[in-house]
Amino acid sequence: MVAVNGAADKEASPEERERHVTSTEMSKHSSEGDLWVAVQGKVYDVTAWLPRHPGGDLPLLSLAGQDVTDAFVAYHPASTWRVLDRYRVAKLSDYRVSEVSRDYRRLVAEFARAGLFDRKGHGCAASLCASGFLGHDSGHYVVMQSRRLNRAVQLVAGNCVAGISIGWWKRNHNAHHIACNSLDRDPDVQHLPLFAVSPRLFASLTSAFYRRSMRFDAAARVLVGYQHWTFYPVMCVARLAGVAVFWVWYPWLVSRLPGGAAERAAFVLLSFAVTGIQHVQFCFNHFSAGTYVGRPRGDDWFQKQMRGTLDVACPPWMDWFHGGLQFQLCRKHGLPYQRCGFWEANARTLRTLRDAAMQARAGGPAPKNLLWEAVNTHG
């Protein structure tokens, strides 16, 4: 076969024969029944993988039709890359990488080469046993050396000891990290009718996580109107909803305690109040940070993490209280970097709740009535 110029016409390589699509075309494949994502410019049809995705369907649905490279490298081990090729359908013709993403990926690669993601083991587990973060860290598979051992730690620390379903928690937590502080997609800022971290929740947004409307009705208006007073008391008892194994051994333990009903009731309230401190700590990192409405974008995933989190500065002896989760890392590209001390974090959280509470009292979709007026008249 002879080409126009007389040179031998070479057969096109598989790379050259590959289908090319634009970002606009890929964005059309963003539904549950037709879901494409791109990783490093390569496009994958993950529709069939959606119900089997270990991280749940919500992370994929939230970033559907987009390049998801930053989130992918943050969540997946190196072994996952080998699985991708079976779903590959095209290549992005207009693939671009921002300077922020480029630096983020370089940092992840340097950490991986240094083995910082591989140094797990029983020593780490033993050190975490002294804190309330064993369930959290094992849920991220960073405590034990194998997935199976991490899973065992999750079940013991989460389901059996803390009374929190680890399956529910991982679904919740993955959605939180992918859409950090998105009012309609991050379940960690969806607490109506008890709390509203932004007046935009007064519009009764639809939760993509719970798949229902978060109604801001008359009851929510009353509760949110005083949320800056109820925040700490609610956090003390927020874990009362647990799972079956927990409610088997915990009532037995209480029944075996010395003293009468009053002493046992005091023990129950105190035990939940102490562990509720951990819930308060989680709220510090997000309640007073920036929020937004809508799906996250795959090309600004790292930036969203920075805008939606707060670095809580504290002396080294207070690190046990935060479990290392108080640190955020950012010093380049002009991204906002929010940092304050422990007591200021408390104050900022309460100010955020109070500002929303005052707006809830002043307006909203719930009609005023005589009872409502009387409650507000007397504070």
UniProtKB/TrEMBL annotation:
The chain crosses the membrane at residues 231-253, 265-287. Keywords: Membrane, Transmembrane, Transmembrane helix. Residues 18-93 form the Cytochrome b5 heme-binding domain. This is Cytochrome b5 heme-binding domain-containing protein. GO terms for cellular component: membrane. Signal peptide: none annotated. Belongs to the fatty acid desaturase type 1 family. The lineage of its organism: Eukaryota, Viridiplantae, Streptophyta, Embryophyta, Tracheophyta. Residues 1-28 are annotated as: Disordered. GO terms for biological process: lipid metabolic process. The keyword DNA damage does not apply. It comes from Panicum virgatum. InterPro entries: Cyt_B5-like_heme/steroid-bd, Cyt_B5-like_heme/steroid_sf, FA_desaturase_dom, Fatty_acid_desaturase.
